[in-house]
Amino acid sequence: MQNNPQSIIAIVPAAGIGSRMGADKPKQYLQLGQQSILAHTLDVLLSHDDIAHVIVALHPQDKHFNALPQATHPKLSQVMGGGERADSVLAALDYALSIHPQAWALVHDAARPCLRHEDINKLIGSITQYPQGAILAAPVRDTMKRSDVNGLITSTVDRALLWHALTPQFFPIKTLHDNLSNALAANVLITDEASAMEWAGVMPGLVSGRADNIKVTHPDDLHLAALFMAQT
C-alpha cells in the first residue's frame, strides 16, 4: 500500500436536524464565539493544506448551512445525508469515490470545533505505521466502572489499554466505503468508521490526540470549547 495518500478528502456528517441542547436548531449551528460550531469545524479542515476537498453530508431539510460563509468555499461540496451517521458518511463516500477513488477519507464530527492542525498532521503522518488506517484517540485516565441496569456498580474495569475514540478517523476511501456498506447491509451496529473496519477484520491504529478535541454534546461543552479555542 502507498506510504503517502495521493489525495485527502475530509468528510463531515452533519445531517442532524434536532438539538439535544434545548435549542431551536441543530447543535452544530449553535453560536460559538463569532460563528457557529460547524463553521469553526469547517475552517480547520478547509485551511489545512493537505486536505484537497471537504464534503458535508446534510439533512434534506437543512435550512442553515447555505447561510454559512464556508458554504461557497471552492474546496467544499454538499451531499444529502441519511438518517444515521453511518448513512451520511456512506453518502459522502459515494460522492468521494466519483471524484477521486484513490483518495483517503478523513472523517470528522461536525460538533468537534477544537480540532488542531497538529493532530491532523499526526494522523496523516501515521500512514507509514498504520497503512490500514487509524483514528485519533485519547487514553482513558479515569477509573472505569461497570454498572447493572439499576445504576449499581458491578465491577471496576481495568483502564489499561482503554482509549476514548475521537475524530478524525482516517482510512482509504474505497476500503472504508466497501466495509461500511457491507456492515450496514448486514445490520451491524456501526458507531464510528473504525467499527466498520473492525467488523471487516481490519485493526485500525490509534494515534494519541489532544484532550481538548471535545465533542459538543451538552450546554456546558460550549463554554469549555470557547475556552479551548481561545488558547493559542
Folded structure, characterized:
Strand 8 (144-147) and strand 9 form a beta hairpin. The protein has a single domain, classed as Spore Coat Polysaccharide Biosynthesis Protein SpsA, Chain A (Alpha-Beta Complex), CATH 3.90.550.10. It is of the alpha/beta class and 232 residues long. The chain has helices spanning 37-46, 85-99, 117-125, 173-185, 193-199, 219-230; strands spanning 8-14, 31-32, 35-36, 51-58, 76-80, 104-107, 134-139, 144-147, 153-157, 163-172, 205-208. It has a seven-stranded mixed sheet with strand order 5-4-1-6-10-7-11, with helices on both faces. The chain has a two-stranded antiparallel ribbon with strand order 2-3. It has a two-stranded antiparallel ribbon with strand order 8-9. The chain contains six helices and eleven strands. The chain is globular and about 50 Å long. Helices cover 28% and strands 25% of the residues.
CATH class placement = Alpha Beta
- Give the mean pLDDT: 92
Tell me the Rg in angstroms: 18 Å
Q: What amount of the residues lies in strands?
A: 15-25%
CATH architecture: Alpha-Beta Complex
Number of helices: 6
| N-C termini distance | 36 Å
Question: What strand order characterises the main sheet?
Answer: 5-4-1-6-10-7-11
- Which of globular, elongated, flat, extended, rod-shaped describes the shape? globular
Order of helices and strands: EEEHEEHEHEEEEHHEH
User: What's the number of domains?
Assistant: 1
Helicity, as a percent range:
25-40%
Give the class from helix and strand content and strand pairing. alpha/beta
CATH topology: Spore Coat Polysaccharide Biosynthesis Protein SpsA, Chain A
